[in-house]
Write a structure and sequence with these properties.
Radius of gyration: 19 Å
Order of helices and strands: HHEEEEE
Shape: elongated
Number of strands: 5
Largest sheet: 3 strands, mixed
Number of domains: 2
Oligomer: single chain
Structural class: alpha+beta
């Protein structure tokens, strides 16, 4: 789990830094807008961490290969779900892999 979050945060940092650098280079005055690079890297790192946690979300109870595990469930925001609500939070309770 930790390695996925770390990898995603590093990718996010790199992508954000490259994007910030491109925006700073395309602006009229690079010297005044050089802070776009570290701002892009910081926002990319935060987005990468958030995506890493989303990617490794677990349920409270899981059964993998006949072994039951109790995990801390991840609470995640729901923007639109199959029940028609436009917002809310969700949490996986049980996960069974066959």
């Amino acid at each position: 789990m930790g390695d996925v979050v770390l990898t995603d945060s590093l990718y996010g940092t790199a992508i954000g830094g490259i994007t910030g650098c491109a925006i700073a280079v395309l602006s009229d005055d690079f010297a005044d807008n050089a802070d776009y690079i570290w701002r892009g890297a910081a926002l990319g790192a935060l987005a990468g961490i958030a995506f890493g946690f989303y990617e490794t979300r677990t349920s409270m109870l899981s059964n993998t290969d006949g072994e039951f595990k109790i995990n801390f469930p991840q609470i995640r925001p729901v923007i639109a779900d199959k029940f028609g609500s436009n917002y809310g939070i969700a949490m996986d309770i049980v996960q069974i892999d066959f």
